[in-house]
């Protein structure tokens, strides 16, 4: 899980303190299923995403799992005011591993809202 969705490092290769931190919070991944997988809020219903009028910034890493590109493409097609940022050399945890690239883009996006 961590190698695929995390930094790309094998879990066993992480420092013990980081492994403990992850293990203490891994239950939060499953706790999000109702919202992320089951669309409990109904945001994906016909007209749901299209009703969002706020500007949206979608950020991903160029090395993110392929499903991220598919999701972002689908969101881009349905959202009114959307910008995309793909960070070269980054994976799924782009906002953590490449904060120096993401932070200015978020700041500029918020400044334009």
Largest sheet: 2 strands, parallel
Radius of gyration: 16 Å
- Report the mean per-residue pLDDT as an integer: 91
Strand proportion, as a percent range, falls in: 5-15%
Structural class: mainly alpha
Q: Give the termini separation.
A: 35 Å
Spatially, the strands of the biggest sheet line up as 1-2
Percent helix range = 40-55%
Instruction: Spell the H/E element sequence.
Output: HHHHEHEHH
What's the total helix number?
Answer: 7
Stretches with pLDDT under 50, minimum 5 residues: none
Number of domains: 2
Q: Please tally the β strands and state the result.
A: 2
Give me the oligomer status: single chain
Q: Which overall shape is indicated by the principal axes computed on the Cα atoms?
A: globular
Question: Topology of this structure?
Answer:
Layout: H1 2-5, H2 16-25, H3 27-31, H4 33-36, E1 56-61, H5 66-78, E2 82-87, H6 94-97, H7 99-112
Parallel strand pairs: 1-2
Polypeptide structure, described:
This protein has 113 residues and is mainly α. It has two domains: 1-31, no CATH class; 43-112, no CATH class. The protein contains seven helices and two strands; from the N terminus they run ααααβαβαα. The protein has a two-stranded parallel ribbon. Strand 1, helix 5 and strand 2 (82-87) form a beta-alpha-beta unit. The longest helix is centred in the C-terminal third of the chain and has 14 residues, at 99-112. The radius of gyration is 16 Å and the shape is globular.
């Amino acid at each position: 899980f961590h190698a695929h969705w995390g930094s790309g490092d094998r879990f066993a290769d992480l420092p013990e303190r980081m492994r403990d931190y992850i293990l203490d919070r891994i239950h939060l991944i499953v706790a999000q299923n109702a919202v992320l997988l089951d669309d409990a809020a109904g945001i994906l219903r016909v007209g749901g995403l299209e009703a969002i009028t706020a500007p949206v910034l979608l950020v991903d890493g160029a090395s993110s799992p392929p499903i991220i590109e598919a999701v972002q493409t689908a969101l881009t097609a349905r959202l009114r005011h959307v910008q995309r940022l793909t960070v070269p050399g980054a994976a799924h945890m782009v906002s953590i591993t490449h904060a120096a690239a993401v932070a200015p883009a978020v700041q500029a996006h918020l400044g334009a809202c």
